[in-house]
Amino acid sequence: MKRGKKVRRYKDRLREILDVAAKLFSKKGFEATSIQDISDKLGLEKGAIYYWVKSKDEILYHLIDKESKLFLRTVNSLMRKDIQPDEKLKLFIGNHINVLTSNLDRAAVFFNEYRALPKKWKKKILKLRKNYEAILRNVIEEGQKSGAIRKDISPKIIALAIFGMVNWVFHWFSPQKEFSPQEIARMFSQMIMEGLRPNRNS
Question: Which of 92, 128, 140, 157 is the most exposed place for a label (fewest CB within 10 A)?
Fold first, then answer.
């Protein structure tokens, strides 16, 4: 078999393992899910899993790492746009909700199972999260300097409030319900921007 085909086969099987693991971790929880559970769902012998991953911890790391980098990669391209800070903030919110709702199982694992990561990997993920959070704070600070966002509230507090609002979406969002990710992003952006507009007391 040619090397290119081997690499594709490896990546495809790893993707299958991660997809199945995400569903099980989301439904049962990381601790309650075993490698055997994942193997059974895939129709593989338990030992075969270890050809692609060394442990259940590594599966969790792959899931959270890929989700972290997806948030960063997509938002970084948006933040390079030559637009006003308040428009950047709307794009940030829309992108965040879009990533969350594109794979609810992975979103659930990303937020609910982070603490189960071994220390060596938790540090790497924490660094990615801090970079992502810094992007939002920078956009807020730009907005405050331009006058688009009120200055009487700390950028850190504003960022925490926004994350507290948008991160909860994966708990209740359903593709079958009445609001699309785009509609949710528009309404959230409207509510957030209404609260951040400068006023006489700012």
Answer: 157
